Amino acid sequence: MKYRQLGRTGLLVSELCFGTMTFAGKGFWTVIGQLPQRAADDLIARVLDAGVNFIDTANIYSEGESEKMLGKALGKRRRDVVLATKVFGRMGPGPNDTGLSRAHIMKAVEDSLRRLNTDYIDLYQIHGFDAITPLEETLRALDDLVRSGKVRYIGCSNLAAWQLMKSLWISDRYELHRFESLQAYYTIAGRDLEREIVPLLRDQDLGLMVWSPLAGGLLSGKFHREGKGPEGARRADFDFPPVDRERAFKLVDLMREMADERNVSVARIALSWLLHQPVVTSVIIGAKSPEQLDDNLAAPEVRLSADELAGLKEASELPEEYPGWMFKRQARYRFPEGEGK
User: Fold this and answer.
1) Catalytic residue list
2) Phi and psi, residue 187, nearest 5°
3) How many domains, the chain?
4) Closest Cα to residue 276, out of 306, 243, 321?
């Protein structure tokens, strides 16, 4: 297992991160996974033994049950991991049981600490954008948590480029701890992140954690153009994230050729492509079975050639949009031979 620096921090995290959304399966989350405690214990032991030191969860997963199960599964090995969780989603019926207000954040962090059976959270992330709460309020609350020692680093998830950049400006303006990472959707079949956010991450030296790297299982190689896919598969019952299916299946066909040459799964090729992207810090993998987990853990062993990467890049290229095509055109003034950024 290789380790990468999380943004501009001195924290090293494994290039694969284990996500616990399949734990418990309560309420809405039953379509994601319904693993019992014993199965969760086994998966956590496997990822730790494989060298994974980065584990991600969220308070909203299975209405808090995922955090509880993770805390039990880690046990005495808690100190061996960089533990990340998230806040924002609804955790109760009251009007203040959701969002990113100081009131909700302060209650939510205490609840997460209790469920995880720990006295600190390594990476505390906002799970989205709260259109009601001022960013200043959210960032001051998170800064207080870092200063108190309950949280060591803060991150965000599912923000637009302008929201993230505004957050960084506020932190700089008021000398608050800033977001050190973004958790976002990114796959070879969904490269939208590259338009605005990837340049921002590079410019501001932020880490990138990738969620749903297989596009909800669509890039696993188990789905076909006709039919819903294998029984029990997540996307068969929960068609998310949105994907251009025809485009995705063309990419699966191309990756299948590479996979067959190596006698590996299509999923490993899709995960390997992400690990070849310089902006990526860690790719979040989840699993319902030890076999699925072992296959994903082997993805870093797959090395794609320059020709293969070029072929995948061309096949998955985003259609040009303004102002991107204007940037490209005007770059010729500075870089007439095509070199440069």
Assistant:
1) 61
2) -145, 170
3) 1
4) 306
Confirm whether 339 is domain-assigned: no
Phi-psi region of 87 (alpha: psi -120 to 50; beta: other; left: phi over 0): beta
Cα(241)–Cα(238) distance, rounded to whole angstroms?
9
pLDDT, greater one: 219 or 340: 219
Phi, psi of 330 (to 5 degrees): -75, -20
Query: Is 0.90 topped by the overall pTM?
Result: yes
**Looking at residues 174-201, what average pLDDT do you find?**
97
For position 158, which CATH number holds? Answer: 3.20.20.100
Contacts of 303-312 with CB under 8 Å at 24 or more apart are 303/272, 304/258, 304/269, 304/272, 304/273, 304/276, 308/258, 309/273, 309/276, 311/254, 312/188, 312/251, 312/254, 312/255, 312/273
- Which value, to the nearest 10 degrees, does the dihedral of the CA atoms of residues 105, 184, 284, 235 take? 100
- Going from the C-alpha of 285 to that of each of 43, 146, 169, the distances in angstroms are 12, 27, 32
The pLDDT of residue 336: 81
- Asked if the structure places residue 340 within a domain, the reply is no
Whether 70 is covered by a domain: the verdict is: yes
For 181-201, what is the mean pLDDT?
97
> Among residues of the chain, what percentage have pLDDT more than 70?
96
Residue 285 falls inside a structural domain: yes
Range of the domain at 148: 3-334
CA distances from 201 to 31, 119, 281 (A): 32, 30, 11
